[in-house]
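Cross-posted from the bioinformatics board.
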Amino acid sequence: MVCNDNVLKVDNLDFSYEENHKKTLSNINFSVSRGKFLGIIGPNGSGKTTLLKIISGILKPSRGKITVFGKELADLSIEKIAQFTSVVPQETSVIFDFKVKEVVFMGRLPFISRINGETIEDYEISREAMERAKCLSLAEKNIHEISGGEKQRVFIAKALAQTPQLLLLDEFTSHLDINYKHEVVKFFKKVLENDKIIIISAFHDLNLASILSNHLILLNEGKIEKIGTPQEVINEDIFEKVYGTRPTIISHPILHIPQVII
Amino acid sequence: MKYFMNKSSKEIAGYTNWRKKLILMIIWGSFSIVIIDFICLNFGVVSIHPKEILSLLWGSSHDKTNSLIIWQLRFPRIIMATLTGIALSTVGGAFQGILRNPLADPYILGVSAGAALGACLAIFLQYATGYFLTPYLPLFALTGAMLSIYLVYMTAKVRYRLPLEGLLLSGVTVTFLFSAIITILIALSEKGLHSMVFWLMGDLSTANWNKITIVTFPVIVGCLIFFFFSLDLNALSLGEEEALHLGVNIKKLRLRIFIIGSIIIASVVSFTGLIGFVGLVVPHIARLLVGPDHRVMLPTSALLGAIFLPLCDTLARTIIAPSEIPIGAITALIGAPVFIHLLRRKSTKNGL
C-alpha cells in the first residue's frame, strides 16, 4: 500500500446510521489523486451524499479509514479539515438577509483568527473567488433575492474562497440552466488544471458526470457496483442491473464520451 | 496581488464596510445613550430643573433632597435599565443565532422561568411564614435560574452533544413546568399576588448602586465575549452542516453561548424580574439597521437595548405617577406593534 501525499484514499469503509442497523455503505475502496475529478453516480438512496459526508468529516465511518494527503481523517478536527476541504451543498437554508459577498467571505473563516480578525488577503481571495465563479456582479445582492442557479454560483465561490485542496460537490447541477452547465464544465476543468486539487462530486445528471469526471463510481445499495473511466462504467448491462431499465447509450459527437439517452 | 495594486487596499469589494458601520454605530449609540439618560433623569414625581440636575451630576450643587432623588433613585434606576437593555438585546440576538430561529428570545431556554419560580417562592414564603425575605429575593431568583440552566442542559444533552431541537424543546418544557408551579403559588398566595405579578412583569424600582455593581461584571464581560463568537454565529446562519464545513465546532459554540447567555440573563433577571419583548424585537431592529453580520449586529443590539429600556422605564414610572406600571407591559405595548409591522414588511422574504 503506497502512502502518497497527493491522494485521497478510502479503505474498507463501512457506515450505518445506527448501530446494528442496515449498512448505508459497505466495503467502499477507492483512491483519487490531485488534478482528478471523481464522479459518484447511482440511484436515489444509494449512499452518494452519505459518502460525501464521511469524506468531509461530518459523519464518522463505522469501519475502515480515510487517508487525505498523507494524514488520517479520523485524527483531524473539523477545524483542521475545513482548512483543506470545502463543500458545495445540495440545498442551503440561510437565515437572515446576508449579502452575497458576506456569504462568500465566510469561506475564509477556517483561516481567520477570532482575536485578530481578517486580513486584506482574505478580502482579495473572496473577491477573486467571486470573479472566478462569475458572481462578482451579485456581490451586493441579498442571498434570498437571487435565483437558484445564481445561489449555486455563490456557494461555489464560497467554496473557492476556502482555497480547498479537496472540493466536494453534492449534486450541485440540480439548479443550473443548460447555458450555465456548459460554463460549469469549462469552469471546473480550469479549476482542476490551475489548482491541481481533488474534486469529488455526487451527480444526478449522468451525462454531466460523464463529461466532467476522470473516473466514476457507480453506487448501488451502498456498495460500489463499478468503478472506472466513464467509458467503462456507463454501460447498458451494468445500468440495467442497477437502475432496472435498459438505457440507450451513445457516444457524444464531439467529446466522444458515453451519453445516456432514454 | 492584482487587486492590491489596482484598488485602494482598504476597498476590496466593500469588505471593510462593517468596521465603518460598527464605529459609526458606537459613536451614534454612545451619544444617544448620554442624551436619553439625561432626558430620563428629568422625569419624575418631583420636578427638578435640568440645570440643577447638571450641577448635581458635576457635584457643584449640594441640595440634599435633590441629590438623593437624582443619585439614589433616578440615576441607579436608569443605569440598571441600561444594563438590562444591553443584556436582553445582546443575548436575544446571540440566541437567535445559535438556535437558527428568528423567534428566539433570551427567555426561550428556560432561565427566566427558573428565576421567576425562585422569586415567587420567596414572596410566597414571606407571606406564609412571616419572615421578611424581600432582600433575599434576588438570591432566590438566581438559584432558580441556575437550577433551570442545569435542568435544560441535562435534558438537552445527548452523549455530550447539544442538538438544536433538544435544546429548544427542553427549554420550553422546563418553562412550562416552572410556570405551572408559579401558577400554583399565585393561586395559594392571596397577599403576595400583587408583588408576584409585578415581579413577573418586570420591576426596576428597587435598583440601587449595590445591585448595579453585581450586575455590571457579568453583563459587560459576557457581552464582550459574545463579540468574539460573531463569525461563528455568521457561519451558523448558513446552516448547521455548512458551519461544520467551515470548521465551526457547533457543539462547543452552542454550549458556550447557552451557558454565558444564561448567566448574563440570570444575573439581570434576578434583580429586575421578567421584561419581555426587548430581547426578541431589538435584535431584529438592529438587523434592519446594519444587516445580519453579527460583528456589527450584536453591538448595535446592545446599544439599541441600552436606549430603549431606560425610555420604557421612564414611561412606566411617569404615566400614572405616583403609581407605576410594570415595565414589561410598556415594552410589550411598544414592542408588539413594532414587531408586527416589521414582520408584515418582511413577509415577502424568507430571511427575516
